[in-house]
């Protein structure tokens, strides 16, 4: 099949590469000339395990193509995936200018039937806006070409995006045209072999499904963080509570890990956007506001523990900090809890020696090459040099079993602040270290 993908960012690239990998012809289009030039040379702008190889292999096999030429891209595919960004507006709603610009461009250039597929996470009602935009432009052109608009939200997790695409839990297809649903079924058949995971529904429900999934997961996390804060006051251990409730299959073990808050490009943005949509439709979504507020507060919990430990005076203290990315296996620092912790520490006069296996270059992009109070260290152990204490913000695998004896010798104040509950408190304390975690006595 012939497929065009608009937007060569995270979602667009993964979608394009995976669709090419199963034998389709795919054209990826982006307006950023530099990005396209680099992609043609096999240089990938983001870190995602396996993606670079997949892009290179499929390019070499002649199945994956890149262009900045809209006309060429639109002529190419029957399927026109829209995977451009929807950055949050100041008021939290998703900005649709890129999505609608693509719709307009498709309408300007199309000469035959096209299936326009919204892959970006867009507010409920966007497919209607896309359809109206296309109709308007076709009207101006005096053309009566047929097209369909489909909502087909992505559920990729950073760090396991290729697997999520290749072996999805579900494929949501929102369309009001049964013939289009059949086309999409055919397109997704290679990813839908073991049992039928494709769920077809009306367009608005498909659009809402994406937000509902992310809001539910964010709610689970904020719920656990709230209980963790309560457990601290009650002298209970949230890790025991987590095991206790996770064993109930109705609750389940996933997404109930307490910590220093959720980050990333999806949860914070989508919870806000859904809240905003609710308000636009005259409904006050109180639970969503609470989920967001709990998370904002949670990102500061580590800093609060640190200040309490030092009785409010952090001037001149040196902190080793492990983990900058918003979660392991990514270099993404969007809405990362590390940023809140680092900003607060620097504002309080402390110095931070930070290490992350993948995100250092991203930190440099955000904070500049030589920011005051922040030093980038390209090796985990070197962060400990002359450090007073250690802070853990992201649960990278390589942080799982450090040499506590050595830590106890190196850290001047012999204290660890762990935002991800990585260690057994008893074990850490046996090594003469003080240990602060989230929701643990
Ligand atoms: C998420 C959704 O999982 C995915 O389906 C959607 O398409 C995009 O958003 P992603 O943002 O890549 O994916 O990361 P995810 O693994 O879901 O983690 C999100 C955040 O929640 C991270 O900051 C993580 O550290 C945090 N988290 C996750 C917790 O604090 N506790 C948990 O139990 C699980």
What does it look like?
One of its GO terms (biological process) is polysaccharide biosynthetic process. It holds the Pfam family UDPG_MGDP_dh_N. This is UDP-glucose 6-dehydrogenase. The chain has three domains: 200 residues, NAD(P)-binding Rossmann-like Domain (Rossmann fold, 3-Layer(aba) Sandwich); 87 residues, N-(1-d-carboxylethyl)-l-norvaline Dehydrogenase, domain 2 (Orthogonal Bundle); 138 residues, 3-Layer(aba) Sandwich (Rossmann fold), CATH 3.40.50. The model has no long low-confidence stretch (mean pLDDT 96). With 441 residues, it is α/β, with parallel strands linked by helices. Helix 9 packs across helix 12 and helix 11 packs antiparallel against helix 12. It contains 17 helices and 14 strands. The structure holds uridine-5'-diphosphate-xylopyranose. Uridine-5'-diphosphate-xylopyranose (UDX) binds next to helix 9. The site of uridine-5'-diphosphate-xylopyranose has 19 residues, from helix 9.
Short description:
It comes from Methylomonas paludis. By secondary structure, this protein is α/β, with parallel strands linked by helices.
- Fraction of residues in helix: 40-55%
Q: What average pLDDT do the residues reach?
A: 96
Question: In the CATH scheme, what's the topology name of the largest domain?
Answer: Rossmann fold
Uncertain segments are none
Q: Beta-sheet strand percentage?
A: 5-15%
Largest sheet: number of strands, sense, barrel closure? 6 strands, parallel
Q: How many domains in all?
A: 3
Structural class by helix and strand composition? alpha/beta
Tell the overall outline: elongated
What distance separates the N and C termini? 58 Å
Radius of gyration: 24 Å
Superfamily (CATH H level) name of the largest domain: NAD(P)-binding Rossmann-like Domain
CATH architecture of the largest domain: 3-Layer(aba) Sandwich
Strand order of the largest sheet: 3-2-1-4-5-6
The level 1 CATH classification of the largest domain is: Alpha Beta
Number of helices: 17
Give the distinct bound molecules: uridine-5'-diphosphate-xylopyranose
In total, the number of strands is: 14
